[in-house]
């Protein structure tokens, strides 16, 4: 069991999307630094697995909370539960998010509205609930997991990219509003990463997934965590991502969209780099989803 940082032994971090990808890695980073955790995800089975793992490894208090942020009242349920338990959230990580691959006119409207609910409405709600308490205490940190997609139009992932553009603008505005307080709000911009995002977005056959190098979720989470602790407004994770963002800033929207589309087109490669995540927690998430789907459950 890791030694607990006594300075943080009474602090709590709430992390959404905590059972795979970045969320899982954030959970380990906060726990390693002595924070107690409130973990939010949809799958009770995966939440229980991650809870036991982190408790055993780091010796911190871990409270799993099964809730579906696709649902409009989930954010309030999370806040009410935490308040009822008498917990002050010192750090909030809004990680949960999804996309859907395909032409806008071909995607089911409700699926796109659900993505907007998850990526924007639930995130804004969680931010509002917990930020008000942080401002009252004049203490707290919020990490918003955005994406390099928020800096460029992205055909075939149009709604997802637009939600991340909203998130970047929203977070920059909050950072300015809070500049005279001790509350930090940080936006994290990763590039395409080895999470289960592509599987959930039905984008596994794309050039980006099959042919490109993907970022390690642990490296991305480390960049975000360290920037949050340093009090930075924004961090772009990885040299390749920095290059993409710089190039997008220099291009017209039309040119940037054209470049993005090439990565989202179906791959023609006969020798793909991957067919499933190498990241262990993300692979387990996929296996759970596939198992649940086989039993009639819809966990996508």
UniProtKB/TrEMBL annotation:
Organism domain of life: Bacteria
Provenance organism: Danxiaibacter flavus
Enzyme class, UniProt record, top EC level: oxidoreductase
The protein's name in its UniProt record: SDR family oxidoreductase
EC number(s) from the headed UniProt entry: 1.-.-.-
The entry's keywords: Oxidoreductase
Region listing for Disordered, in residue ranges: 255-300
Family as reported in the entry's similarity comment: Belongs to the short-chain dehydrogenases/reductases (SDR) family.
Family annotation (CDD domains): SDR_c
Keyword Oxidoreductase assigned: yes
Record-linked Pfam families: adh_short
Sequence intervals crossing the membrane: none
């Amino acid at each position: 069991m890791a030694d607990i940082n006594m300075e943080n032994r009474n602090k709590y971090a709430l992390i959404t999307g905590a059972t795979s990808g970045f969320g899982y890695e954030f959970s380990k980073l906060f726990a390693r630094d002595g924070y107690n955790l409130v973990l939010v995800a949809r799958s009770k089975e995966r939440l229980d697995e991650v809870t036991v793992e982190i408790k055993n490894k780091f010796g911190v208090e871990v409270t799993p909370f099964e809730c579906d942020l696709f649902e409009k009242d989930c954010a309030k349920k999370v806040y009410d539960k935490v308040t009822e338990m008498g917990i002050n959230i010192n750090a909030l990580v809004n990680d949960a998010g999804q996309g859907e691959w395909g032409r806008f006119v071909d995607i089911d409207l409700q699926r796109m509205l659900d993505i907007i609910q998850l990526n924007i409405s639930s995130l804004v709600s969680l931010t509002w609930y917990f930020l008000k308490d942080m401002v009252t205490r004049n203490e707290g940190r919020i990490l918003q997991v955005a994406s390099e997609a928020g800096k460029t139009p992205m055909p075939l992932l149009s709604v997802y990219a637009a939600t991340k553009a909203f998130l970047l603008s929203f977070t920059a505005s909050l950072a300015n509003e809070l500049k005279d307080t001790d509350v930090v709000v940080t936006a994290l911009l990763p590039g395409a990463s080895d999470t289960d995002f592509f599987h959930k977005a039905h984008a596994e056959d794309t050039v980006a997934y099959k042919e490109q190098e993907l970022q390690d979720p642990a490296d991305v989470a480390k960049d975000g965590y360290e920037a949050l602790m340093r009090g930075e407004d924004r961090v772009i994770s990885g040299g390749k991502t920095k290059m993409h963002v710089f190039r997008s800033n220099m291009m017209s929207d039309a040119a940037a969209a054209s470049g993005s589309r090439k990565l989202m087109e179906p791959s023609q490669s006969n020798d793909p780099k991957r067919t499933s995540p190498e990241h262990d927690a993300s692979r387990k998430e996929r296996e759970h989803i596939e198992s649940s789907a086989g039993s009639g459950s819809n966990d996508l």
